[in-house]
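S.,

Sequence below, as promised.
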Amino acid sequence: MARILELIIPEEFAGAAVYYFLKEHVRLSTRIIRSIKFKENGIRLNGERARTSTILCAGDHLVLTLDDAPGESAPTPMALDILYEDEDLLVVNKPAGLAMHPSHNHPEGTLINGVIAYQLAHGRAPEVHAVGRLDKNTSGVSVCALNRYAASRLNGRAEKEYLAIAEGTYTGRGVIDAPIIRPDPMKTLRAVGAGGLRAVTRWESLGTGHGLSLLRIRLETGRTHQIRVHFAAQGTPLAGDDMYGGSQELIGRHALHCARVALAHPVTGKNMVFRAPMPEDMQRIVERYIEIV
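The prediction came back faster than expected:
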């Protein structure tokens, strides 16, 4: 079913055109506005069809009908650890080993395929947009927008907090501010290097032991593999991260977990926080080797 939004025009947008209101207040992309403006019920103002050039008055009743985008990925039924759901969002605790998006070599069996199957099984449109991206072997909170409006409102606006286990001793707090480059454009491997994109990682030590540290991490930028690259560049790769020099003696994947995501709901504006507990493979390392401060 199409998503219908009902909005009351606030005083500060009196005298503005519908297009300006949709761009500045509703934050719809030009592509979405273009897709609805020619639909019979796409944009209605006080019960009548409206143009994007129509001038608004305070208190006007604006109704938008957002068409569902066609599903491009096949459904793959799977068990989902659902943290939250409504008609705009589905928040899942993603296990390590599950890719987020379909790819040319793996068109099925990803989280997106699983959410599409879940939506179809519940009689809902199979439109899913991942808000941000976790690497295949990173576990934790994954937010999926269920329509283009929600996706556009959340783009770049979700704040994530990670837990990581690094092969090194860290105490207190610190910042890693180092640019990240892609040495070979044909490979996913990244590195710290001059001329790269600025990347800033803030960390706080939660405990140490046996040459390991449990870290709480927040990102100011969102570069590919940023946390993994930054700690590898310090000579302290994440445990299990064999791509960047970590040992798999204690864990068979990089020890990185998205533990918390905070965002403002794309429709209601309500501040929301989602949490996922540390997975068992990381928890075993902490319990055996790390003393929490």
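Residues 111-121 form the longest helix (11 residues).

Coffee later?
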